[in-house]
Amino acid sequence: MKKIGILSSGGDCSGMNATIRSAVRTALRMNMEIVGFRKGYLGLMKGDCFTLDSKVVSGILHRGGTFLQSARSPEFRTPEGQQKALAMLKELGVEGLVVLGGDGSLSGALALHRLGFPVIGIPCSIDNDIPFTDMALGVDTALNNIIYAVDCIKDTASSHARAFVIEVMGRNSGYLASVSAIATGAEFALVPEREFDLAEICQQLRARYEEGRDNAIIILAEGVGNGQTIADSIKDAIGFETRVTVLGHYQRGGAPTVFDRLLGSRFGKKAVELLISGQQGLMVGLSCNAILATPLADVIKGEKRPQDEVLRLAEVLGI
Ligand code: F6P
Asked: Which residues make up the binding site for Mg(2+) (predicted)?
């Protein structure tokens, strides 16, 4: 193998640049050429790529997002789109591909693998819903962003004796909501994985208000529903004046934490080493602090990553 490619696809996350930098440096050290495709599978289908050398990837480690840019591509989900990408890879002389992304992007990687093309996936999604990795890339930075925001909101909530419903991302996963609630001492985490009784929550908030407590924080996973709807349905029952904050895409950006810089660097190196050693159709993942590889087919057919331990911890802590 003399030439490989790399792309970032789907929702971006902090740590992607560290991953790309590490993959490039590993490839160069092994005397391989490496090209970066712009905007994920979109760029791949068009052949929109450029050579990555040591200089191109210097000065990007500490930046959030992905300097290769990212996109979601409905065309690549079709067999025609996948054939187009395959033909482009052959035309460019690219013999292996590293794909950074979440479950949709990893399904795309699996499709290329099934067409006989060597691919290694890297799990990147703030939702932390990808099986076979303890943590996906970007989760730790997103959590730190959330925690900073919640701490700020708590200050103003206390000054005004208010309850805040804070909506966080995660699609159908409640990981960000559960962990940020644990780490900020929030009163409630409303997550898709656990049923809750809004009337019971209102009673507990009312009791808190009557005890003279000066704030209440409810962290809502976006997969449960809309923050404003929840706030409207509790505001007349709880005593506290109620406000809503939707953290939105703020969560996905910013300088990556040390954890994500290191995880990305480890993932990038391992992915290239696997490709060069002739292994393919795998996803790298973190397991008990080791970097392991799992067949993409198992990742894609696997159940969503279980949140049981975190949910139990939240319950024990009264969240
Ligand atoms: O999957 C990552 C994620 O950030 C989800 O948490 C969120 O629902 C979604 O992507 C937002 O997607 P977009 O950036 O396309 O609005």
From this structure: 103
